[in-house]
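Sat 14:20. Reprocessing the chain from the morning session after the first attempt stalled halfway. Input below, unchanged.
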Amino acid sequence: MHKFHIKNDFSKAFCYILCWAGRQNMRFLAVFICSLALCIVLDASAGTDDWHYGIVVLSRSDDCVAKIQHIQNFSRKQRCKKAVSLFKMANEKSVYEFSRNLRRSSLSQDIVIEKGLWIGNAARIRYRTDSALLALRNLPEVVTAFEDIENFKILETTASADAMDVVWGVQRIGAPSCWSIGYAGRNVLVAVLDSGIRYTHNDLENRMWHNAGEIPDNGTDDDGNGYIDDYYGYDTYNGDGNPWDDNIPSYHGTHCAGTVAGDGTGGTQTGVAPEAGLMAVKVIGSSGLGSASALAEGIQYALENGADVLSMSLGWPNPDNEIKNYMRPIMEDVLSAGVIAAVAAGNDGGEYSAPQDISAPGDCPVSGHGASGQFPGVAAADRRQQSAGHGAQAQAARRSAPGRIGGPGRAACQGCARPGCQPRRIRQHHPALHGPAFAGAPHHPDAQGDRRDELCRDR
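Finished this time. Tokens:
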């Protein structure tokens, strides 16, 4: 008879009793087999309940840092490919060293490495106890370690305004003058890292990026890039190839996409870069929250698949040093790859005092090693060039956010709302101006409640 390893004492005793009963009467044999299988399943599930997900940030060698600095001499496209290749090799080496030291330590029974995260040089793990997670920080190659909870959220405010002109923001930043000299976003691919995109929306479907090597909805990784059915992009939150925006009723990712490249097919042009391409990268769930690992994997996908700009209207509120030490190397890697990241700043509602009132990564200026320049932190303004109802946190954005830009963001109806709709009262979402990244834009203050939901549906 095969021996089954049952860790739960109650499960063991129960199985022994059933085994004895089975010897007494063959009638009990079927009951015994079924009960034993049930005990094994329950015991296994009880074991998995003890595990939690975490993130471990790993250090890089000086040699790797020098190589990152060297790739700055290449053209942007070459630079991105070389950077991704270098990051992957460095992470593979770091995770190997981490795994080896883990096996040598007393933590090997309480820590399991799930996967490497090459952007920022980290790893996703499973761990049993908080004490084991804290003990990881004592390993020589570990920069920090923390629980991988869903605390990155889409950033929006509730400032209201009268919608006087649906295209006011686009006009205010001088976008038409850029278009007139040929800068309308052509050949620029913007990855919208958000709650997804409703990619069949009239104003967006002609701007959507398509993975030419992938056949949609056939359940196969046709191009061999490691992602199944990633035709419009990818959903790293749910781990599938359908980055559909299910953030009801805001549809935050969809109206962010409209801010970037809404082309006016349905009525009024809302995008500041109406000829740009849109890659849908869903890192936020329907609730408006996402994990640190989902965000990292989303950035990895965007870089691997040729994004020129990252639109990130999200952040981790009141970030501690662990989160900052996680996001800083990620943003440095993005810049080292020659990619611009436009990040929300100053939308947190003044809930926290400075410097905690800017969410990460909006509060993470780069240290400079391996990266040239800084990413734009973006805050919104109204028609009078006043902060759009954000209070103290808008002041903090002006003094704290790297590469800070202020842009119109109160009275322009965009994105998920039907083009041309002019609600009397509107809500402001993430910072409006992405500036030099794709020409800058007002953000979409959308309609309220059921009407907003209706306007966002496929038409």
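The first helix runs from residue 9 to 24.
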